[in-house]
Recover the amino acids of this structure.
């Protein structure tokens, strides 16, 4: 019989498990794969984002010997944030391990560790999905909890920014004016670059995540259709498919965002487009706080923490837990734009 004393071995310590979980292959996700959010490990549960609103101005001419014009003092302010906790667990009971055969301690460890890994993998899938939902919220300027209603952070409100009016792409127009769509795209570029100021670099790209109906009408639009077909037919993208594909046109990288299969839990609404910068200076970050256990107090936060908690009273079960203390955020919400198909 395998007893739960095995969980008291070093292989199941919080530190070892956390390091082990970090090496697992998690479910792929669009924003995680893009590495858009710069990790920012912190030692506290809250942090501040400092804003510097330097102003440029023309220098008036003056007579020789006249007093100089003084440079305007740079205005500074700071906004506080607090990381949120993601915590989910499962319970392994002694009866579940009862019939595992083991021919020695090494085999016993291997079998039980495999069971523990399976439990963590299941939870990790939910954690990946939750992180993707938070990242998706951050590129739109508003973080929403798992219920789809509770607002965790509104970066427009937090930074005192008025959210830009949604742009009508008029994709349902049966007889669009020539060049009208390209004009709209150029307006998106100008608006984001001007809003970004020093954050928008020469190498910064504009990315659009679009819903299904928006995508279908975009790639079929008279201005776009030829360019899109050539993009798909090119050697580098010969395996690209129309559904959930991507391509470059009008100075924007367009991507038909694939969310959850119900197209609602984590998704872009079917008629909508969300525009955000990729490769901009200090726009998207994700803060990680330390776990709420003694061994991690005041240490630099990590992306995830894994724990096995044995039943020290009855020795009948062990809880496995995966947690993350994070906050993805957008420091320049004025650069975030949105569009609509109709």
């Amino acid at each position: 019989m395998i007893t739960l004393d095995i969980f008291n071995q070093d292989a199941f310590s919080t530190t070892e498990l956390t390091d082990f979980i970090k090496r697992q292959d998690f479910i792929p996700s669009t924003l995680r794969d893009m590495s858009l959010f710069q990790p920012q490990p912190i030692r506290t549960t809250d942090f501040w984002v400092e804003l510097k609103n330097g102003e440029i101005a023309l220098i008036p001419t003056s007579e020789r010997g006249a007093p100089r014009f003084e440079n305007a003092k740079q205005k500074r302010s700071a906004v506080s944030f607090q990381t949120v906790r993601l915590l989910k667990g499962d319970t392994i009971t002694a009866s579940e391990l009862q019939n595992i055969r083991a021919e020695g301690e090494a085999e016993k460890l291997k079998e039980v560790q495999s069971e523990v890994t399976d439990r963590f993998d299941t939870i990790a899938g939910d954690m990946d999905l939750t992180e993707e939902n938070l990242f998706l919220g951050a590129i739109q300027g508003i973080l929403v909890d798992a219920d789809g209603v509770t607002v965790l952070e509104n970066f427009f409100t937090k930074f005192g920014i008025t959210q830009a009016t949604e742009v009508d792409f008029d994709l349902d127009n049966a007889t669009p004016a020539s060049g009208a769509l390209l004009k709209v795209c150029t307006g998106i570029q100008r608006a984001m670059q001007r809003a970004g100021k020093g954050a928008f670099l020469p190498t910064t790209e504009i990315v659009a995540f679009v819903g299904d109906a928006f995508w279908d009408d975009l790639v079929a639009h008279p201005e776009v259709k030829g360019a899109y077909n050539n993009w798909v037919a090119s050697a580098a993208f010969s395996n690209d498919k129309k559904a959930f594909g991507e391509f470059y046109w009008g100075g924007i990288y367009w991507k038909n965002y694939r969310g959850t299969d119900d197209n609602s839990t984590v998704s872009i609404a079917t008629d909508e487009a969300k525009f955000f910068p990729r490769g901009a200076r200090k726009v998207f970050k994700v803060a990680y706080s330390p776990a709420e256990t003694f061994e991690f107090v005041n240490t630099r936060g990590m992306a995830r923490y894994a724990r096995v908690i044995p039943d020290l009273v009855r020795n009948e079960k062990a809880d496995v837990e995966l947690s993350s203390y994070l906050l993805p955020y957008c420091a320049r919400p004025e650069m975030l734009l949105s569009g609509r198909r109709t």
Notes: The mean pLDDT is 86. The longest strand covers residues 317-330. Residues 206 and 252 are 5 Å apart (CA to CA). The chain has two domains: 4-48+75-143+285-330, 157-284+332-340.
